[in-house]
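Late entry, written up from scratch paper. The run itself happened at the end of the previous shift, but nothing got recorded in the book at the time, so transcribing now.
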Amino acid sequence: MGVSGSGKSTVGELLAEHIGADFIDGDALHPRANVEKMESGLPLNDGDREPWLEKIGETFAQAPGSLVIACSALKKSYRDLIRAADASVVFVHLQGSQELLEGRMTSRSGHFMPPSLLESQLETLESLDSAEAGVVLDVAASPAELAQSAKLWLEKTS
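Output as recorded:
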């Protein structure tokens, strides 16, 4: 989980490889209307996100084995919606400075999320609280290091 530019997809794919899980980029589960809204530079609201988050939760619940899904899950209420479908879901929160995230977003091409929406995501973001199953990792580390740290955390908590 994390804001755009935090490396969710890259780290998620690496983590899935490390633990023998399937990987899904949560962006692929967005309804077309959400993608069009973000492409036009408009941030999503809770009503836009709800069906997407429910789809993510359903996807976890229906998975025959281990699954890693990269998704923003910015608010605790969003994470609660996902966990409502599958209580075993845990979160790896990738966080970094706004400057680092902006740099990553401006250097990538072909993504529907414009860098102009980063600030609204950061304003919406609620970090994991102590009651939530998850770990927070600093994206100043390399994707390989982050995936390894997440794997080690998962092994310790299993």
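The chain has one domain: 8-157.
(Scratch paper discarded after transcription.)
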